[in-house]
Design brief:
Length: 357
């Protein structure tokens, strides 16, 4: 009920807020969440100016944009108490609605692939997908792991990676051709039995991805939260906040092949540069930049107190780091590895790019 009243208030604020900024959303825009103000800032990366601030509801943590760059989705987290995603019209610069997730409480990590919003539900120990075309949650998969937090979905949506903070694990989900509860591919059902129950289409329930999913749980370090998949899709690097280390997972082998003692205690985000040469890690006390090939520290920026999202500019020129305690998003030149600008956002956290097609 509180979320619905907030949405009504948000819509009533759209007109005056539009007058305050009266700038169009750029085709390529940086999105930055404020946990303090409960707003989404649309930023023009050309001049680092905020063109609009839009209400998004209680305790926003992560944001993702649709593939066409017209809609943003925000997770209302509440440490596992809340159960909505906020949908935002980025062109009209206004809130659209709250998407009710029901028992899938504590939505946090987000991704957008194959026309769907993929989200973690921390309190439910699960991952789900929401289809905007049908306005329905069309898939849910439990992880059985404590605090399933961040998520990465591969472009074909046949492989998913998630970190489980309190379990100190990473889950790799891989889509298979087998039907849930049925025989392996190529094996006939015993005694001529099997097949879908009467009235159920082959391949399972309608709306769910066909086939089954194979889950592999990989132990990593304590407090595994922030992670990224290397641009070549071969490795997952996981920042372990409790250990101050980074776990390197070989995705083909589905195991940790190296643990980097890089002194990043409290690290909650990690992001590769688009060319895969560097990895940026935010442990709160500094921004740590690692060489991906040598797996050694290149630079440590003590004046960048990153505590939230990291995003890379699509052209690879800059990185953007949410500095929650300092109240701004830092712009980092990826050639000089120095701060070149700041965007004032109160207690910033989740960041994303919206690229309008």
């Amino acid at each position: 009920m509180r979320q619905r009243s907030l949405l009504a208030l948000a819509i009533s604020l759209v007109v005056p807020m539009g007058f305050a900024y009266s700038q169009q959303t750029p085709k390529v825009a940086l999105l930055a969440l404020s946990k303090q103000d409960h707003t989404l800032s649309i930023v023009d990366p050309a001049n680092l100016q905020i063109v609009a601030r839009i209400p998004v509801g209680d305790d926003p943590h992560e944001v993702i944009a649709s593939a066409d760059g017209t809609t943003a989705y925000v997770s209302n987290y509440g440490s596992g108490a809340f159960h909505t995603l906020a949908a935002i019209d980025l062109v009209g610069q206004k809130p659209l609605k709250f998407i009710e997730l029901g028992a899938l409480r504590g939505p946090h990590g987000l991704d957008f692939k194959q026309g769907k919003v993929w989200f973690t539900a921390e309190a439910a120990k699960a991952i789900g997908s929401y289809n905007p075309a049908t306005d329905k949650i069309d898939w849910i998969m439990g992880t059985g792991q404590n605090r399933t937090h961040m998520v990465y979905v591969f472009p074909d949506a046949n492989r998913i990676v998630t970190t489980n903070v309190n379990a100190a694990t990473v889950t790799v989900m891989e889509h298979t051709d087998a039907r849930p509860g049925g025989p392996p591919p190529g094996m006939p059902p015993p005694n001529g039995a099997g097949g879908p129950p009467p009235g159920m289409p082959p391949g399972g329930m309608p709306g769910a991805p066909g086939g089954d999913w194979q889950l592999t749980v990989i132990p990593v370090g304590r407090g595994s939260e922030g992670f990224d998949v290397s641009p070549d899709g071969r490795e997952v690097w996981v920042a372990n906040a409790g250990d101050g280390t980074v776990s390197v997972i070989d995705l083909a082998a589905k195991k940790v092949v190296e643990t980097l003692a890089v002194n990043v205690p409290g690290a909650n985000r990690l992001k590769f540069t688009p060319d895969g040469k560097l990895a940026l890690v935010t442990p709160g006390s500094a921004l740590v930049i690692l060489d991906a090939a040598t797996r050694k520290e290149v630079k440590r920026l003590a004046n960048v107190h990153g505590s939230g999202g990291i995003q890379m500019e699509p052209d690879g020129a800059r990185a953007y780091v949410a500095c929650g305690r300092d109240g701004y998003v830092a712009a980092i030149d990826l050639k000089t590895l120095e701060v070149v600008g700041k965007i004032e956002v109160a207690s910033p956290d989740g960041l994303a790019w919206a690229i309008r097609q």
